[in-house]
């Protein structure tokens, strides 16, 4: 019985796939452009990745960290809120 449980646990672990960020799609603006957009608004880009069809990341301003989402084609910020 124990051997069977161990084998099942190992099999489950082997089948698990770690979560990963998406790959930027065709027509997406570059990460650097998002950084420039944020800089114009007084933020400094600290983290960015493609996720769920948009750019997502973190930026700081005056020592405060904010979370943002940006449209992948226009760079328009669709979410910008203080990170908790």
How is the biggest beta sheet arranged?
Answer: 4 strands, antiparallel
Specify Rg, calculated over alpha carbons: 19 Å
Shape: flat
Number of β-strand runs: 4
Count of all domains: 1
Q: Estimate the mean pLDDT confidence.
A: 86
Strand content: 25-35%
Contiguous uncertain segments of 5+ residues: 14-18
Continuous helix count: 2
Report the order of strands and helices: HHEEEE
User: Strand sequence of the main sheet, in spatial order?
Assistant: 1-2-3-4
Distance between the termini: 46 Å
Give the fraction of residues assigned to helices.
25-40%
> Helices and strands: which structural class?
alpha+beta
Describe what this molecule looks like in 3D:
The protein is of the alpha+beta class. The chain has one domain (about 1-80). The chain has 2 helices and 4 strands. Strands 1-2-3-4 form a 4-stranded antiparallel sheet, covered by helices on one side. A hairpin with a 6-residue loop joins strand 3 (about 65-70) and strand 4. The N and C termini lie far apart (about 45 Å). Mean pLDDT is about 85; it is low at about 15-20. This is Opacity protein-like surface antigen. Keywords: Signal. InterPro entries: PepSY. It holds the Pfam family PepSY_2.
Summarize the structure.
Residues 1-21 form the signal peptide. The protein is α+β, with helices and mostly antiparallel strands and 84 residues long.
Spell out the key features of this protein.
84 residues, alpha+beta, four-stranded antiparallel sheet, 2 helices, PepSY, signal
What are the SSEs and their pairings?
Elements: H1 2-15, H2 31-40, E1 44-51, E2 54-61, E3 64-70, E4 77-82
């Amino acid at each position: 019985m124990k051997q069977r449980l161990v084998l099942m646990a190992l099999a489950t672990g082997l089948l698990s796939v770690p979560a990963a960020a998406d790959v930027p799609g065709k027509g997406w603006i570059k990460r650097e452009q998002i950084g420039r957009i944020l800089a114009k608004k007084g933020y400094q880009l600290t983290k960015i990745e493609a996720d769920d069809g948009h750019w997502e990341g973190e930026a700081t301003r005056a020592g405060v960290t904010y979370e943002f989402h940006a449209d992948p084609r226009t760079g328009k910020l669709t979410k910008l809120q203080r990170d908790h």
